[in-house]
Amino acid sequence: MSVRSTRTSTKNTLYMKFPILFCFLFLFIALSEGKHEVKHMLLAKLKQGISEDEIEGYIKQYANLVNLVPSMKAFAWGKDVSIENLNDGFTHVFESTFASTQGIAEYLSDPDHVAFANTLLPQLDKVLVVDYMPTKVKL
Predict the structure, then answer these.
(1) Which residue segment(s) compose the domain that 71 sits in?
(2) DSSP per-residue letters across the chain
(3) Per-residue pLDDT tens for 59-118?
């Protein structure tokens, strides 16, 4: 028997000895595809002349999308507080959390989101959107 046939034989034996284990492993991989948390970051520079009350109203409307759009899991926001002056004019950051990239696709086409976007976007001088999957670093 050659070395090659021994390796193949060993591999086949593992599959034969543990078929349920391999089925569960395959199922786990298949179910976990596309199921990673995704962050949707919107950086904005609001137009001059918008009052703080108006800004607060837009932020409340944005935050309320969590109650209206099923795929949106969380929302947070903040103003730029950096002392590095590398913000490129962006003044506000809005972060939405989704269970998957599919959730973002559902959000983007949701009528409540579309209506809100049509209200907010004309109030912005500048906008940048980035979607990413947070990755933990193991040290």
Answers:
(1) 38-132
(2) --HHHHHHHHHHHHHHH-HHHHHHHHHHHHHHTT-S-EEEEEEEEEPTT--HHHHHHHHHHHHHHHHH-TTEEEEEEEE---SS--STT--EEEEEEESSHHHHHHHHH-HHHHHHHHHHGGGEEEEEEEEE---PPP-
(3) 999 999 999 999 999 999 999 999 999 999 999 999 999 999 999 999 999 999 999 999
